[in-house]
Specification:
The chain is mainly alpha-helical. It has one domain: Up-down Bundle (Growth Hormone, Chain: A), CATH 1.20.1250.20. It is 77% helix and 0% strand. The chain contains 17 helices and no strands. Helix 1 packs antiparallel against helix 7 and helix 6 runs antiparallel to helix 7. It is globular, with a radius of gyration of 21 Å.
């Protein structure tokens, strides 16, 4: 096992917080950017969807690199690839320039995803990964909150450009620190038969190996749920602040407060989901996808309630809205760490960079579609409420797909553990 692995995990989480802040820093200032460049919601949605989808497509290549080369240096490079264009976004003089810089930022964000999960998979065994995924999941939520706070509270006063600079600069420093803090673990070091040994899981891989990933049923179903399940995550966080400002008449500060509470609910849901998911996994693996599916479906009702709750003129009603939003976000986020834990626990060590690059692509397709469709529906119907309600109902489909995984997830875990034990035994017999 890697020494100081928990310290390294926290450091990676901090890196990812600022990298994920890049995604949401533009959201609170959509109106300001649209006004300056003379564009509408559909065009700003296109920027966001391209940021997400192209970054995910490029991550397929990064996933292949993560399974072959040193992941420490790949991660540092991906951070810089994301943060330099984010910094330059502040100096955009036209919609075209902003589009280009945001697209390049998305490449860096997408690249980090498979690299990080490949690293983590070799630092923690399958019985620890529930809480580990909960911690890593915090980076996405906290990053969104940091980006939204900086963009929301500073953008209105100092303009939309300054927030891009503030969220990008810290990772230039952390990238340098990473040279000394990050460690490259041995492949397979956390697998059955390899723990506390000097063996390393080494296997030649090719681009064609991507195809075998789809033969594992858990992978296939998680890819499908990822596409439909992230459509709401594309539309809701991205347009949430603008919705409450434009259609509920709240100030930017109050609307950003709602987003912050939603984010805190997501943090709580991630932590709760990871910890409970790990406990369930140890007792009955079949119940992990069942729990994830039911909480996902339940979250739909609270989320719709959040958007439809009216009478926000009093402090009491505003507090009630915050409580509903917190509850909705808790249920909506419960599934996240368990999905990633399930992926890690059914795939071989030298497949994880590629498996998470594909997973990132399916997730990003949903997120990108959600952002674009959200903007398009807003323009078509003149209502962000309709756009976000339509997006939310996709979680029902996501929940049903997760429920179906009851029939094969446990067998896929057993198959991997058996394979790793056999592989370790063969290495030992060969000396």
């Amino acid at each position: 096992m890697v020494k100081n692995r928990w310290v390294i995990l926290i450091f990676i989480t901090i890196l990812l917080i600022f990298l994920n802040a890049d995604q949401m820093v533009m959201s609170p200032n959509i109106g300001l950017i649209e006004k300056e460049f003379g564009i509408d919601d559909s065009q700003i949605g296109l920027v966001a969807s391209t940021f997400t989808i192209l970054g995910a497509l490029i991550s397929l290549l990064w996933g292949y690199f993560a399974d072959k080369y040193n992941r420490k240096y790949l991660l540092i490079f991906s951070i810089l690839v994301g943060e330099i264009p984010c910094f330059m976004s502040a100096f955009s003089q036209s919609y075209s320039q902003l589009f280009i810089w945001r697209t390049l930022t998305g490449i860096g964000v997408g690249a980090s995803f498979p690299i990080v999960f490949s690293l983590i998979g070799d630092m923690f065994n399958h019985k620890e990964r529930g809480k580990v995924m909960a911690i890593v999941g915090l980076s996405i939520t906290l990053g969104n909150i940091v980006g939204m706070i900086i963009g929301g509270f500073l953008g209105e006063k100092y303009g939309w450009r300054l927030p891009f600079i503030l969220v990008s600069v810290p990772n230039f420093i952390f990238a340098l620190l990473a040279l000394g803090i990050l460690k490259e673990p041995k492949r397979g070091a956390a697998e059955e038969g390899f723990i506390d040994t000097e063996y390393e899981y080494i296997r030649k891989i090719t681009i064609r190996d991507y195809l075998k990933l789809f033969k594992i049923k858990t992978n296939l179903y998680l890819f499908l749920q990822g596409i439909v399940g992230t459509i709401p995550w594309g539309a809701i966080p991205y347009f949430l602040v603008e919705f409450f400002k434009r259609e509920r008449g709240l100030t930017a500060a109050k609307a950003t407060t709602i987003f912050m509470i939603f984010g805190l609910g997501s943090i709580f849901g991630n932590l709760l989901g990871g910890l409970i998911g790990e406990l369930i996994y140890k007792k009955n693996k079949k119940l992990v996808p069942i729990t994830a599916g039911l909480t996902t479906i339940l979250g739909v009702f609270f989320t719709i309630w959040t958007f439809s709750y009216n009478n926000l003129n009093t402090s009491r009603n505003f507090i009630v809205l915050l409580l509903i939003g917190f509850t909705a976000a808790t249920f909506d986020s419960f599934t996240g760490p368990n999905v990633k834990m399930m992926l890690l626990n059914v795939n071989e060590p030298q497949d994880r960079g590629r498996i998470f690059s594909v997973f990132n692509l399916t997730d990003s397709l949903g997120t990108g579609i959600g952002k674009y469709i959200g903007g398009l529906l807003s323009v078509t119907f003149g209502s962000l409420a309709i756009a976000m309600n339509v997006a939310t109902y996709f979680w029902i489909i996501c929940g049903i797909i997760l429920l179906l995984m009851y029939f094969f997830f446990e067998n896929d875990v057993k198959n991997l553990n058996t394979k790793m034990l056999e592989f370790a035994a063969n290495i030992k017999n060969k000396g």
